[in-house]
Amino acid sequence: MPGTLSPDSAVSAPAPTPPSAPSGSVRRRAVLALVGVILVGLNLRIGITSASALFHELQHALGYGAFIASLLPTIPTLCFAVAGLAANALIRRLGVENTLVLALVLLSGGLALRGIPSTAALLVGTVIAMSGLAICNISMPVLVRQDHAHRTSFVTGMYTVMMTVGSTSAATFSVPLGHALGSPSAGLAAWSGAAIVGLLGLVPLALSSRGIRASIPGGGAPAERHGVLASLKSRKAVLITIVFSAQGFLAYAAMSWFAYILSDSGMDAAQSGVIFGISQFVSLFAGMFFLTLGSRNGARPWALAIPAASMALGMLLLLVAPVGTALISAVLLGLGLGVFPPILAIISQSGSTAAETTALSTAAQSIGYLFSALGPLSIGLLHGLTGSWVLPLSVAVVVSLLLLATGFRLGTIHRGHGPRVVIASHEAKRESPLHDGGKQD
Prior knowledge:
Growth Hormone, Chain: A, globular, about 75% helix
């Protein structure tokens, strides 16, 4: 794939190779890691878009006011910012596989708790589930870097495809599911089944990592430490954080309020859920397209700028004629959401070791999601204060323009895989949590 590091371009390390795990174990681990990527990716947005599609009905059923209505869509990003800070230490202590198992336990339990028809259960369950997702968000680029360093774009594309499949399914079917089960709360809790499947699928990977650790001398040694704040000293790292922050602001504002705006403008709740699902469906193909486009150095700036421009146009149409141009807005917003895979690929390709990638991922995503929390919160509060969607959507357009400018700049300075890493088959374990990550040659 263009823009990825092939075995032919890898540089051999001059130093002797440390003792490695058996090659069969490494291959088995790579397969299990790929399964883990698919299953975790499927769950990355289900807990968010399932609730977004049901917010209108949940408010009527549970009777909470405007403050809770604005707080609920903000909880995911706040959890991503705060709980995500723990991911760096957890990965260092437990390894990325066991960290992901813990994250999916939290996700499964939190989603199930939301099935209790009360505002308190909805809030507490959302906090628990989104804390699990926060850890997944930080861990995924690390898992990709560790086990698939030579094909980060392909594997990142695979798990973002699964993420979009999950989010589209949840957005489209949550309302009918809630009707079939008799309450919107039950419709939310039903999605815990997908998280349980993901948890069961990750257990073999976690067990496999213990076996490999036991077969390698020094495999139980603590992983390399790399400061989270130290990872933000470069201009590129700052740009990554700004771009991630801006895209998160827009993505969560859109995921939280798009269907609500349509319903508030007179569209039937089920129909608005379908339109919302279309935006998620479009983002599936948009993400793959922009990821492929961004794998070429010369086109990478446009892979970040085009979705930003699409998001701005979609917000403008939603402002001018929300119902009349709903389908066009959905397509444009879906194209805008396609900026997520390229920025994830850039994170996975940055840093000279797995520890540096972990630190950068933690810093960029924690700070980014803290800013992202302002998206759904500010949209909701500004609408509540003004009684109109004009000011909230105008703010979204301004943030889209910020994303356009910074994304284009980031695309011009990021080149390919960044540091060249050793990826010879007998050294594949260098990118596993059992060692300190691949060394820069």
